[in-house]
């Protein structure tokens, strides 16, 4: 009977911790996924202050504030307890997200809008920095020896499930209204932010009912709580060297594998493979859905064979297969080369439309092409009567230049391809390739919570594990797109050159981990 | 294995300054107030260098510890 109630408690511990952490990830992701709309609403182009605030909102929240949140809340968690601290981070995150959804746009309240949004975004980063370490520590300190990898792997599913939820909610809202309804000042883009408060209230209610972690409660009752967790974590050599080892030998590599498999892949499918919005999103959704159980599988397996080699194998597979996989995405959708090589393309009747842009009239010809089983939109642009003032824009097109002139100008214009739609067989192939990369993520990420928890003693665990985790994920992982652009600008010939950053970091981390890490297998927690 | 750990320590120790050098030269080459890409934005470079400087120093300290044998089997098992 006792065994049944203990299993029940563990289920509640895992459920309450995982739900809250998933919501925090959801909250953090929706801002990034709606960045385009958010920037139009809060950070309009042409205003240098707004541009600076936008940069800070995107970069400072991930790179500076997350590690700082890890230190701030990690210290609190080691002083006050895990439960109260990760409850606080949840409320802070949920509250900030909900409030972002309530901030009026730049056109209504001016520069106050981006300032408030920046402040709330920084609070989100701070809260995220504090949440993960608390949840992972809390679950690990409840788990019996020999099952720590399995139990904490549920926490590891949350980052991916948070992404899944964010993608799903945004798609659901977007598919039920027009683009215009979605993008207006009080439009549909705000719904995912408002939805967060419902999730947070439920999660706070569940977490309030939980008890403190038994190891921390014992530490507290014995009066052995750390007096200064930051000093003990980073000023004592015995512990600091383990923080460094955790960062360089594990989470640094894990961060880039995680980011490349889930975020870089999606961005690549949209910007390089030019897939349409729905297909690029649903490919990610299916791949995530089928890969998520493997977090649990590899967490469980790490209890049997140790954490080290599973994590390192995930990094090595990324190093070996990233270029072939991304190259396959490019090759499969290489429209420009096919056209240049004269591959036959069926063309639907062209649509010609006009748009006003600033004080110019742009004419756009859109053709739908069917080539190698793929459907793609080919657009050709031409500017009519450049410099014409708006008041003179109203004569019909033919009056400005004549139909024959327009057709000739459009034929000379360089085509731009977009909205690639894959046939079923290629669509499933892409799902499989993304799934493969997320499997690498599950290998490095599934066992990492248990691995980090076991590296540090209970009185400074929250602080010590949170910092390397958020530097690995936030900084090394978060820099994947930036360094990708940097490399692409320097080495313009290779379209896959951006991948050398995650490959290089994962290889470095693999080498350090292979040489310096020990293969722990559910050691008893102190 | 302990000898390899120590020898590799020299590599980590040297890698720290190399990273700092590449970051600073990368910033000098790419910062362009007229540019539109993220890599032209000075604020982003300041953030990245600020956060990477302590990480590179951390890598050097890691190398130093490795060189001193802090990660050799007997010491790390204590």
Automatic annotation (TrEMBL), chain A:
It comes from the Bacteria. SUPFAM superfamilies: MFS general substrate transporter. GO terms for cellular component: plasma membrane. Signal peptide: none annotated. The keyword Iron does not apply. Keywords: Cell membrane, Membrane, Sugar transport, Transmembrane, Transmembrane helix, Transport. GO terms for molecular function: transmembrane transporter activity. It is found in: Cell membrane. Residues 13-521 form the Major facilitator superfamily (MFS) profile domain. The chain crosses the membrane at residues 12-31, 51-73, 85-103, 109-129, 150-171, 191-208, 243-263, 283-302, 309-326, 430-455, 467-487, 499-517. It is a multi-pass membrane protein. PANTHER family: MAJOR FACILITATOR SUPERFAMILY TRANSPORTER (PTHR43045:SF7), SHIKIMATE TRANSPORTER (PTHR43045). This is Sugar transporter.
Automatic annotation (TrEMBL), chain B:
Pfam families: DUF6814. It comes from the Bacteria. Keywords: Membrane, Transmembrane, Transmembrane helix. It comes from Niabella drilacis (strain DSM 25811 / CCM 8410 / CCUG 62505 / LMG 26954 / E90). The chain crosses the membrane at residues 7-31, 43-67. This is Uncharacterized protein.
């Amino acid at each position: 009977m006792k065994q049944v109630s203990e299993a029940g408690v563990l289920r509640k511990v895992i459920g309450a911790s995982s739900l809250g952490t998933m919501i925090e990830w959801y909250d953090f992701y929706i801002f990034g996924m709606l960045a385009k709309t958010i920037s139009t609403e809060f950070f309009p182009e042409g205003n240098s202050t707004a541009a600076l605030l936008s940069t800070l909102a995107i970069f400072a929240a991930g790179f500076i504030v997350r590690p700082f949140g890890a230190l701030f809340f990690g210290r609190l968690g080691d002083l006050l307890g895990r439960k109260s601290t990760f409850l606080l981070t949840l409320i802070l995150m949920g509250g900030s997200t909900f409030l972002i959804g309530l901030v009026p746009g730049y056109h209504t309240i001016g520069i106050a809008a981006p300032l408030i949004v920046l402040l709330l975004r920084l609070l989100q980063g701070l809260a995220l920095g504090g949440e993960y370490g608390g949840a992972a520590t809390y679950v690990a300190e409840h788990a019996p020896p020999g099952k720590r990898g399995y139990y904490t792997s549920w926490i590891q599913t949350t980052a991916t499930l948070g992404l899944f939820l964010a993608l799903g909610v945004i798609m659901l809202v977007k598919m039920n209204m027009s683009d215009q309804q979605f993008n207006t000042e009080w439009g549909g883009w705000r719904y995912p932010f408002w939805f967060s408060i419902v999730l947070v209230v439920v999660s706070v209610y569940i977490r309030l009912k939980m008890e403190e972690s038994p190891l921390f409660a014992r530490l507290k009752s014995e009066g052995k709580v750390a007096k200064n967790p930051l000093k003990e974590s980073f000023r004592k050599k015995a512990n600091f060297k383990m923080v460094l080892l955790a960062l360089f030998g594990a989470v640094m590599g894990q961060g880039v594998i995680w980011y490349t498999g889930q975020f870089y892949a999606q961005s690549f499918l949209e910007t390089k493979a030019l897939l349409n919005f729905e297909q690029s999103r649903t490919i990610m959704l299916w791949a995530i859905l089928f890969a998520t159980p493997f977090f649990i599988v590899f967490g469980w397996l790490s209890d049997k064979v140790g954490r080290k080699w599973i994590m390192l194998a995930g990094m090595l597979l990324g190093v070996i297969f990233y270029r072939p996989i991304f190259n396959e995405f490019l090759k499969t959708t290489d429209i420009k080369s096919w056209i240049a090589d004269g591959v036959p393309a069926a063309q639907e009747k062209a649509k010609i439309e006009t748009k006003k842009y600033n004080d110019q009239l742009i004419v756009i010809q859109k053709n739908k092409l069917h080539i190698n089983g793929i459907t793609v939109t080919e657009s050709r642009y031409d500017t009519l009567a450049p410099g014409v003032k708006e008041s003179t824009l109203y004569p019909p097109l033919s009056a400005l230049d004549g139909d024959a002139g327009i057709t000739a100008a459009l034929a000379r214009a360089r085509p731009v391809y977009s909205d690639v739609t894959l046939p079923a067989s290629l669509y499933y192939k892409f799902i499989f390739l993304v799934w493969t990369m997320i499997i690498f993520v599950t290998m490095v990420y599934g066992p990492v919570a248990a691995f980090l928890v076991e590296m540090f003693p209970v009185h400074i665990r929250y602080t010590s594990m949170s910092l390397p985790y958020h530097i690995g994920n936030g900084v090394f992982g978060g820099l994947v797109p930036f360094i990708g652009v940097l490399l692409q600008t320097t080495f313009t010939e290779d379209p896959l050159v951006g991948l050398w950053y995650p490959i290089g970091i994962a290889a470095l981390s693999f080498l350090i981990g292979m040489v310096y890490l020990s293969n722990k297998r559910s050691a008893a927690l102190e | 294995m302990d000898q390899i750990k120590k020898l590799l320590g020299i590599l980590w120790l040297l890698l720290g300054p190399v990273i700092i050098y590449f970051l600073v030269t990368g910033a000098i080459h790419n910062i362009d107030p007229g540019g539109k890409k993220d890599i032209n934005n000075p604020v982003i470079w300041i953030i990245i260098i600020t956060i990477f400087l302590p990480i590179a120093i951390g890598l050097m300290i890691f190398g130093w510890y490795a060189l001193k044998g802090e990660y050799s089997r007997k010491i790390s098992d204590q």
